[in-house]
Amino acid sequence: MQKILPFFFLSCALIFSGCQTTGGSGNTGRTAGAVLGAIAGGIAGNNMGDGSDTNVVAGVILGGVLGGMAGNQYDKRREALGAAEAQRQYEYEQEVREQQKLEEEIESLEKQRARDAIANSATKSDVAAAEREAARVEAELSAKRKAFEESQDRARRIQEAQERIAQAQRDLKELEARQGGQY
Hints:
mainly alpha
């Protein structure tokens, strides 16, 4: 067993480094499969036959190769699933864009239809009445906006006066305390 361990670890290191240099970081399944296969192969090679170093090394190599192949299949399947998901996401985004485009076109057509309906039945007096109503509502808005701004200004001035009163009362108490020698 003493002679087996160096060969076993050397074989594992060679298989592991070979998987890393050829596959890169995207082949984690192949790398893990090769390492785990080499370990399992080494154990199986040690337990089979007479347990010689040749059996262990052969088990490590065979296990590493088979494990790497299985891991490679895992990586390919994972990549295929990722590509399919990316394609589904792309198609979904395309459908969303098309739906938004259709909704915008429908809205535009509805506005045009309403405008056409008004154009077919509106008279000059209808236009004048609509413009008078718009001017009346705008004037009402302006008056209410002005009243609101004035009320906000009054509220601000009251709050400022209350703050000045509170400060003056604090200053008065402090002065009275000093005059009374209580400070």
